[in-house]
Structure formats: structure tokens, C-alpha cells
Amino acid sequence: MNDKWLFQLKKGSFELAVLLLLKNKPMYGYEITQRLKETNELSIEGGAIYPVLKRMTSNNLINFFWEESDKGPKKKYYYVNEKGLQTLEERMEIYKSVYKALSTLAEES
Amino acid sequence: MNEVYRKYINEFYSECSTSADIDKSQLEEIKGHLIEYIQDQLNQGLTTEEVRKNVMKEFGSPSHLAEQLSFENEKIETRIFSNKNMDIIIAVFAIVLVYSSSIKYTPIGLLFIYIAVKSIITKNPFAFAYYKKKPRKIYNKGPFWFYNAVFGVLGVLLIILEWV
Fold it and tell me: Which neighbouring-strand residues pair with A66?
């Protein structure tokens, strides 16, 4: 298996995965990484999620709020905004089209 | 709090103190994540050494984590200044001025000063691949500043040469 290809494929999917998770409810960084780990394929290391979240915030796909926690420092919860929802819809359509095209080619071959 | 956490967070804070790009809120976020991660590991009955290894595997070394955050922050902040079209337009404009007017050295001098200033602001010296691989090294004194100083001084000298 070509690791570089797989790495790029996963890298391109993380933002989409985060948008899908946050569509259901606001989550904080650790929660997001734990949920992604459950998928296996989209598992991401603890530190690596924050550049993704920062990028998505600066691209105005997600917003955040701080909440006090009983167990330690305040938690930064992220949630998807309107632009994020729109982007999610568009990207999922593109993803489905690409998958469909690849499946067609696979069947033909 | 756990020794693994204390050691890691102290080193991480130390690495972050050399970077102007990592803000306090990011540090708080990482702190919370680390605490919860270590707590979960301890709750699973892992030893301190096992937790330490898992923390390094999960987050990388403190310097690696700081570098990851810093790099991404810089990419975001320099987006405004990263318009390559603007660089080309300015360079072409300088060259056109040189050939079409009696001013010979000033446009080139200004171009050199622009390259130096932009490089300092964006922390992105286009000619230095070394810094593309290790962006945090920009904050160390050395080749980066020498490179910009040379361009800046050359620019000023050319302008002076024009008008003296």
C-alpha cells in the first residue's frame, strides 16, 4: 500500500470528518480525536487535530466557545456554522460523485 | 498532577515561549487535552512509563508539537501576504521602470527592500528551502536575518547610489 497516497487521502478527509462530527453536537479537541479513533481509518494523533481545527476556524467553517470543566482546565468546544454546513453539503456531494466515478471505472475494468 | 504531564507541559511551554505564533488559548487547549488523555491512560491501569511512551506517540515530542502548531499558525497569518502575483507584478514593474525611465537603481533598490521586509513579515524567505522544512528556526538568529540584512542594505545602497 502506498503510504504517501493514503496519507494524502486521509489528510483531505479530516476536515470533512470534523464537519460531520460537529454537525451533530459541539465537541472539544480530545473528544473529536477519540471519536475519530473509533473509525480506525480516520484516526488522528492528539496534537495533529489542532492545526486542522485552527485552519477550519480561520476559514470560517467552525466557531467555538469556552466552557468551564469540573475535571481540569476550561474546554474549547467547536461547532459548525452556516458556512461550514454549506461546505459540508458541497464536499459530500463531490465526494459521492468521485466515489461513484471510481466505482463505475472499477466495475468496467 | 502526574509527573508525565508536568514534565511534558513544562517542556512544551518552554518551546512555545520561543514562538510568537502560539497563543495562550492554544496552550490551554493542549493542556486540557493532555490532562484528559493521561487520566484516561492511568484509569486503564497503565504504568507511568507506559503513559509517557503513549503521550510521546500521541502528541510527539514537545518541540514537535510546538512546531506543528506554530507552522500552521504562520501559514494562516501569512496568507494575506502570500500573493505570488503581487510579487511578480512588483518585480516586473521595477524592471520596466529601469528600462523605460532615467531612474536606474532606485526601483531595484526598492525591490530589494520589499523582498527583505516581506520576508521578515511573512517569515517566509522564498530562497531558503531550509526554513520551509523547519519554519520555527526563523526565530533563531542566523542566516535568515543575515539574508534579509543583505537585501535591505543593498536596497538602501542602490537608492543612495541613484541620488548621490
Answer: A76
* pLDDT value, residue A97: 94
Look at A76 and B71 and tell me if their CB atoms are within 8 Å: no
**Chain A residues touching residue B36 (CB < 8 angstroms):** 30, 71-72
| Chain A from 70 to 109: CB within 8 A of any B CB | 71-76
Q: Give the C-alpha separation, A52 to A67, whole Å.
A: 21
The vertex-B155 CA angle with B85 and B134, nearest 5°, equals 60
Name the residue among A36, A18, A38, A34 with its Cα closest to residue A80. A18
Cβ(B69)–Cβ(B26) under 8 Å? yes
The residue-averaged pLDDT of A28-34 equals 93
**Nine-digit cell at A20?**
460531520
Q: Could B32 and A50 be called an inter-chain contact, meaning their C-beta atoms sit closer than 8 Å?
A: no
What is the residue-wise DSSP string for A83-94?
A: HHHHHHHHHHHH
pLDDT, tens digit, for every residue of B138-153? 555 567 778 888 889 9
pLDDT tops 90 at residue A77: yes
> For A37, which DSSP code?
H
Give the amino acid at A51.
Answer: P
Give CA–CA dist A32/A85, Å, rounded.
17
Tell me the three cell numbers of residue A87: 461546505
| Of B97, B92, B90, residue with least CA distance to B113 | B90
